Amino acid sequence: MTDLGRRIARFTAVVAGATLLSRVLGFIRDLVVAFALGAGPLADAFFVAFRLPNLMRRLFAEGSLTMAFIPIFSRIRAEEGDERANSFARSSLVWLLLALGVLTVAVLALAEPVVRVVAPGFAEHPELLRNTAHLVRICFPYVILICSVALCMGILNAKDHFLAPALAPCALNVALITAALGGFLSGASVPVWMSWGVLAGGLFQWLMQQPALHRRGFRWRGPWRFLDPGVWRMAKLMGPTVFGAAVYQVNILLGTLLASFLPLGSISYLYYADRLVQFPLGVFGLAVSTAALPSLAKLAAKGREEEFASTLRIAIGLTLFISLPAAAGLLALSHPIIDLLFGRGAFTAEAVSGASAALAAYAAGLPFIAAVRPLVSSFYALEDTKTPVMVAAGCMLLNIGLGALLMQFMAHVGLALGVSVSGAANALLLGWLLARRMGAAPIRLRPLLLSTALSLAVGAAAWASSLVPWLWIAAAPILAIAYLFTARALRLEEALLVFEMFRRRAKAKKAAADG
Question: Per-residue pLDDT for 231 more than 60?
């Protein structure tokens, strides 16, 4: 195990731990929303309205802005110093506010046409269309706040601080929980309250980043340049990475468009299933790529090819080590998990069945989707943005065609399956092209085969436990522990890194207690 690998694993643990808290709050949020809204037209209206700014966040913030900002900020900081890098960050914020301000004004003015584009099936239900447009006008300005938060994230991550950005989503979840309960208990419109909650959550997330920035010597007051050359370089890179880094989110939007033609409730089934798949993706999958991106960018800039390849293998290996058993578990336990989490109140047995089928289809592609981000990050660190775009464009066409075909026979499940197939194609093509470029595969075969075999065993055992009511709840943590210890016994490097993270945390806590 290299020092760089240990460092990435340590940063990953920080991001994953903070994100775990956020995801737990997210599940509580979904429980509250499922109880208050169910899976009917009101829920569809809110989810479509919320998905618009949320998609912008995933495309232009996490999926593009952060990836473009970190390497340029790190290079300016190394070559010209902190003051110059801070000036570049302030200049980036000015342009960000200008661009997003124009976009927001346009969406507010054209809310109904925008909804017709995103969910054309709503045009057949005029009241639903009007309600959705009203919610869009309330919550879309969230995109300005959350993209500004992403810029804060880029600054902090480039300075090796990951905790505050990873904790930020907790603020949104708390705001939405409060809004949903407030609307339900007061008898007011729950979707309207939640839309205002989205806006409040964005503001809270921004405020959470400021103390960490101040402690690291960054202030928003200070010199900046309207025509900063770094901003132009970042803008040139952001365009193509919108598609290359966030193809999965684009596919989800296309799924929403197609699902609007299906029976009412289909969009909600896909939403709740996607939320569960996002749990392992967010807690560990995206945590790995977030922790690895600064290191990949620095190594690529210095021409250290062997260390670059080693770092990438560590990132992808850790991603698959967690996502493979997670996918197996979600496939085996899709119905009991959905029933346990959401099967109450307005969320009927029919909704449980619909959402669990979508979850199984999404879970099949989880390992591939998780691997896409570190693969795209590696291309970006090598300053190759064209290759991911070409691959992403082809995979989006695959998703549209396959989803439109399968929905004729499998309804919303066909749309979820189309996302998984296109995600797999994206990961495999990127991996193959990167292997040609590096002269070696970006992943080691033995750990992949062993993790796959162990994950299949976990999935089989989980399915068997589901045959006995409630047994699967007790079996799930036991199977996870068995997976980790078996992998360590087989000397898988990813398992050794995970156990080393636990040992370091235990030593740190013991030292703090003794001190």
Answer: yes
Q: Which tokens belong to 339?
A: 């029933």
Q: Name the token pair of 293.
A: 């991106």
Exposed/middle/buried for residue 352 (C-beta within 10 Å: 0-12, 13-18, 19+): buried
**Closest residue by Cα to residue 496 from 505, 506, 510, 486:** 486
**What's the pTM?**
0.73
> What digits encode the pLDDT tens for the residues 411-446?
889 999 998 999 899 999 999 998 888 877 788 888
Domain boundaries defined on the chain? 3-507
The answer to whether 372 and 426 have CB atoms below 8 angstroms apart is: yes
Reported as half-sphere exposure (CB side, CA atoms, 13 A), residue 104 has a value of 19
Within 8 A by CB and 6+ apart from 434, the residues are: 312, 375, 378, 379, 442
Q: What angle do CA 15, 234, 296 make, to 5 degrees?
A: 45
Task: Give the three-class secondary structure for 482.
Answer: helix
Q: Are 273 and 418 a contacting pair, CB within 8 Å?
A: no
- Within 260-365, residue ranges assigned H as helices are 266-280, 286-302, 305-332, 334-342, 349-364
